[in-house]
Amino acid sequence: MGEENKVTVHGMWLSPYVKRVELALKVKGIPFEYVEEDLSNKSPLLLKYNPVHKKVPVLVHNEKPVNESLVILEYIDETWKNGPRLLPEDPYERSKVRFWAAYIQHVMECMLKIFKAEDQEKACEEFYQKLGVLEDGMKNMFPEGSPVKSRNIGLLDILIVVAFGACKAQEEVFGVKFLDPNNTPLITSWLNSLLELPVVKESVPPHDKVVSFLRFFKESSSNAQA
After folding, report:
1. CB-neighbour burial class of residue 215 (10 A; exposed 0-12, middle 13-18, buried 19+)
2. Model confidence at 225, in pLDDT bands (50, 70, 90)?
3. Which residues contact 130 (CB under 8 A, 6 or more apart)?
4. Percent helix, strand and coil across the chain, each rounded to 5?
5. pLDDT tens-digit map of 150-197
6. How far apart are CA 47 and CA 93, in angstroms?
7. 156: enclosing H helix or E strand
8. For labelling, which of 89, 94, 149, 176 has a CA lying 20 to 30 Å from the CA of 210?
9. ω into residue 57 within 30 of 0, thus cis?
10. Chain centroid, CA 10 distance in Å
11. What is the reported pTM?
12. Which residues fall within 8 angstroms of residue 110, CB to CB, at 6 or more apart?
């Protein structure tokens, strides 16, 4: 990688926000260096590049840091225009993708709350309600079903596979069924199609490693509440 176009990603291997950035770069065919951060002992570079939130991911392009995963994805798409576009060219279509991208982030945040919720049943109800809205919205946007086979991977594909790609590991540890093909047939089939793509397979963390981490997280949370 030439120093004049150097790309570095500071991340944490399981972070869905980091995985968004990694997958976008791979879809675009952009070489990058990955720096794993210990979030319990953040590096001076991470604190330098993201002094406000002090979080991952951070994309550093020619020594210029870009923060926040959705902002980074748009930066990638606008900077490297030769590869597949993550967002549509048409302004109205692009606005719809941005709207649903923000909503998918909201759904994922509701899902992550389940892992820490004292009232898990209530947290699940909120998640399922918002997931149903997402399913209906995607059916309206893609009336012919899963859009994977009809075009290149775009922003919504990246967000869907990152939000739900580890569902089986999460279900195994927390005993919650996040996706039910009877209730969310489009999202489920869409996710399954994405998980078969080579670029996605190489980006998804190993199932057993995710399960081990989530079990450790669950035990640590239980001990903290005891």
Report:
1. middle
2. low
3. 103, 106, 107, 110
4. 60, 10, 30
5. 568 999 999 999 999 999 999 999 999 999 999 999 999 999 999 999
6. 36
7. helix 155-164
8. 149
9. yes
10. 15
11. 0.93
12. 123, 126, 127, 130
Q: What is the pLDDT at residue 220? A: 84
Written as six digits, the tokens of 8 are: 């570095």
Report the 10 Å Cβ neighbour count for 216: 11
Cα–Cα distances in angstroms (integers) from residue 75 to residues 22, 59, 86, 124, in the given order:
13, 10, 10, 34
Other C-beta atoms closer than 10 Å to the C-beta of 28 total 19
Q: Are 11 and 37 in contact (CB under 8 A)?
A: yes
In the chain the domains, ranked by start, together with CATH numbers, are: 7-79 (3.40.30.10), 91-225 (1.20.1050.10)
Are the CB atoms for 8 and 134 separated by under 8 Å?
no
User: Both tokens of residue 223?
Assistant: 């001990």
Task: Determine the 3-state secondary structure of 187 from DSSP.
Answer: helix
